[in-house]
TrEMBL record:
This is Xylulose 5-phosphate/Fructose 6-phosphate phosphoketolase N-terminal domain-containing protein. It comes from Lepraria finkii. Residues 3-120 form the Xylulose 5-phosphate/Fructose 6-phosphate phosphoketolase N-terminal domain. It comes from the Eukaryota. SUPFAM superfamilies: Thiamin diphosphate-binding fold (THDP-binding).
Amino acid sequence: MYRSMEWALDEIHQIQKATRSGRPIMKPRWPVLITRTPKGWGAPEKVHGKLVEVSFRAHQVPLMAAKSDPSELKQLQEWLGSYEPSELFAKDGGVAKEILDIIPKDDSKKLGHQIGTYGSHEVLNLPNWKNYAVKKGGQASCMQPIGELLDQTMIDNPKSFRVFSPDELVSNKLDAVFRHTGRNFQWGEFSNARDGRVI
C-alpha cells in the first residue's frame, strides 16, 4: 500500500509540476488506486462459531450481545485493541501528536474546509419558460423550444452553465445552443478545452 501511494503521489506531483511550469500535460492520466478487500475485513472472523468475515453477517452489528455476554465483550475488547489505540491517543485522552501534526494548521487547506466542498450552489438566472411555448395552433418539435431556452440560459449565465452532451445534440434538435457557443471536445490533445460550453 505504501509503495502504491508513493507511486500515485509521484504521478500527481509530476502532473502538477508540468502545469505550474507552463507546460501542462494534455489529458494527463491521473493515478487511480483500487483496493479490493474481503467483506467485513477486520471484524471478528467468527462469532459463536458463525462466520462474520466474508459473509452476510458483516453487514450487521457483529457483537450485538457484548453488553451481556462476557465472551462477546472479550472479543470486542480484542477487536478494538487490534487498532492499537495507545498509538492513536495520548494518555490524557487527546489525539496523539503524530496524528495532529499531519492535520494542516491553515483551515483553508483542510479537506472539509475547501470551498468546493461547502460553497453554496450558484442559482441560475433562468428565463421564463412561457416565452418559449409554442403558440396555439403552431407546430414545433418538443425539443426545439428547449434548445431555445437552453441558449438563453447560456447567455444569462456565462460562467455557471454548461451543457454536457454526447454528439447527438443536433439530432436531438437542441442545436439552438450553438448560436452563442461551440463544442468543447474532451478527448483529443488539440481539441481539449478549446472554447465552447457544450462539453
